[in-house]
Structure formats: C-alpha cells, structure tokens
Write a structure and sequence with these properties.
Number of strands: 18
Number of helices: 12
Shape: globular
Radius of gyration: 20 Å
Helix content: 25-40%
Structural class: alpha/beta
Distance between the termini: 11 Å
Order of helices and strands: EEEHEEEEHEEHEHHEHEHEHEHEHEHEHE
Oligomer: single chain
Length: 347
C-alpha cells in the first residue's frame, strides 16, 4: 500500500510500504476513508520535532474495518469507525478513568514501528479499547464524514480545553489561537453555554469561521495590544475562561494576562519553542488556575458524536483544502505557509 513518510525537514514522501495485517488477536485493519494533516504534524515537518528517516506520520483518520483479530468483540469487517489520535487498551486504570492518553500499553499513530493515519490503511492495536463505531450511512455523506473526522483530534481537543478552562453557562471565554483546535474550542465553548466568546486571531478567513462557530468578538491584535483589547471588551476584568491553543511562550503569556482574577486557563497547545512563559507569582496573586494537557479524545467521542450526527455542532469548516494521497506533501507546504487551515486527505 501507499503511505506518507517523513525523511527530513520539509521532505515528505508518499511511498509504497508493507500492507498492514492483523498481528495480535486484538488488532483490526482499517481501510482509511478520510485522514488529515494536524498543526502538530508541522513541528516534525519543520524539523522542530525529531523523526527517523522514513518514519510514518499522521494521527487522525476514520475508515472501514477490513479484518479483525480473533479476540476483537466490538467490530467486524465492514464497520465504519473513527480512531482517536492514540490507541489504548480500554482496560487499565487510566482508561477506566477516562485518561486513555496515559494508557501504559497505548501509543501514538506514526510513532516508530506503528502505522500513520496518512496512508491507505492502518493496523489498529487494542481495537475494542480504541475505536468508536459510526453509523454505516455516514459513509455516503461527504460533509458528515468530514465532520466526524474532527472527532479523531481537533474537536475533542477543543472540548478538552473548554472543560479545562471551566467554561460554563453564561461565562465569558477568550480563545488564544485561530488554528483548527482554537476554532473547535470556540465551538465547544458555545456548546457548553458560554455567553460571550472572544476569538484572538489575525486571519479573516479563520475568524469568520470563529464567528460562525459562536464567537461574539474578534481581537486581531497580538501581545500587549491584544491584552488591552480583551480587557476593554470585558470591562477591565478579563475572561472567566481562557483557551490556549497555540503552545508558545507568547500565547501563554497572553492567556495569563487576559484571564480574569479567579479565572482558569485550559491549555492544549502542544508546547514548542522557548519556555512556558508562566509567572507563578502572578498566577498565585490573581488566583488563576491552569488545567489541560494532551486531550483524551477517546473519552469524549461518545459525548460529542450525537451532536455531530444531529447537526448540533459541525466542525467540518475547519477543513479548507482537500487533497488525495499524492497531494499530502503539498498539503504540508500549504499549512506551513498558512494558505490552508487544515488539510483533508482522501486516500
């Protein structure tokens, strides 16, 4: 089969690789219908996250089960399924607590020795603990299938940030970051009942999506100017809840500065670059809480799935460029140059 591999910074290739097969009795093989490129994939693309030459890549996909191991009880050939961005056994204490990202036997797609989502098929370990079955009829609905793909990462990650930030009915929320996760954070905040949602972003195409998703205000400034703008919009107090969806020192500094005293920051931006930018004395003096981290999206899919199926939420607009598998290297380039928000891949 064919799959995307990374060989060096800015060197993405689509190559022939061995077909995945059932290796353990708890495996399934999934034929990929939809995959995508994540903003976090760009750190490997830019050389800011180490990868071995030829390593597979991609951690968001959904598709059809082609084969199942003897001990798989929840899935059979022909089932439409979505995969969260990590696999997990579904039986350990962490999985039972809804923290599948800490499963001792779990792992990330595209890690050394595993398949990546940006290919024609994927071997899925611990299928019963990892995958979620989707309605078969969704396979013939292109828009719905695209919206469901967001459950593999960005929708669940935005939801995780909103929960971490303590978004509640009637609250004021500020979202730092206009990427797909930040936009899904807007959608999640709206779903949880936020009354006012301030989206921080400079790209009109993206902030237009934010408004569609529920943002009531847009702040295009950065740094101290952005902080002043949010303060002005909130009567000098700041936001009850702040979603940090970038992961840089500057974005975290902004998040702390625009939080209301007693507020909470939900952070899901993958840390990169220099330090965290946290001044604990400021957070201590102002009673600002910090919660977040890598999102256990497997725990959230059952909750979010019905709302996507009935149209209550629709994250599909975050996918603004569609490519075939041969177009994946160009898709990375488009996202790196910010001419695309999030690239959908149809193998």
């Amino acid at each position: 089969m064919r799959a995307t591999t990374i060989h060096a910074p800015f060197d993405m290739r689509v190559e022939d690789v061995p077909d995945p097969v059932v290796q353990d009795s708890t495996d399934v093989v999934v034929r990929v219908l939809r995959a995508c490129i994540c903003g976090s994939d760009l750190w490997a693309y830019r050389g800011e996250a180490a990868r071995q030459p030829g390593q597979r890549i991609g951690h968001e996909f959904l598709g059809i089960v082609e084969a199942a191991g003897a001990d798989v009880s929840g899935f059979a050939a022909g089932d439409l399924v979505v995969a969260p961005f990590v696999w997990s056994d579904g039986t350990c204490e962490y999985c039972s607590e809804g923290l599948q990202t800490s499963c001792p036997r779990g792992g990330f797609w595209g890690s050394v020795g595993s398949d990546g989502g940006q290919g024609e098929a994927v071997r899925v370990p611990f299928a019963d603990g990892t995958l979620v079955k989707l309605p078969a009829e969704a396979a013939s609905d292109d828009r719905l299938l695209t919206a469901l793909l967001a459950l593999s990462d960005v929708m669940g990650t935005g939801h995780h940030a909103a929960l971490g930030a303590g978004v509640r009915k009637g609250s004021t929320v500020a979202v730092v970051g206009d990427g797909a996760v930040g936009l899904c954070g807007v959608l999640a905040a709206k779903r949880l009942g936020a009354e006012r949602i301030i989206a921080l972003g400079r790209h009109t195409v993206r902030t237009d999506i934010a408004r569609t998703f529920g943002a009531t205000d847009v702040v295009a400034e950065r740094g101290e100017a952005a902080e002043a703008a949010v303060r002005e919009l909130t009567g000098g107090q700041g936001a009850h809840a702040v979603i940090e969806a970038v992961g840089t020192e500057q974005s975290m500094r902004t998040a702390v500065a625009i939080a209301r005293d007693g507020g909470t920051i939900g952070y899901v931006g993958v840390p990169h670059g220099s330090g965290t930018g946290l001044d604990l004395s400021v957070m201590f003096d102002r009673n600002i809480s910090l919660r977040g981290g890598v999102a256990p999206v497997r725990a959230y899919i059952p909750e979010l799935l019905p709302d996507i199926l009935d149209g209550t939420i629709d994250p599909s607009p975050v996918f603004d460029l569609t490519v075939g598998l041969d177009g994946v290297p160009g898709g990375y380039k488009a996202m790196d140059e910010r001419t695309a928000l999030k690239v959908l891949v149809k193998p």
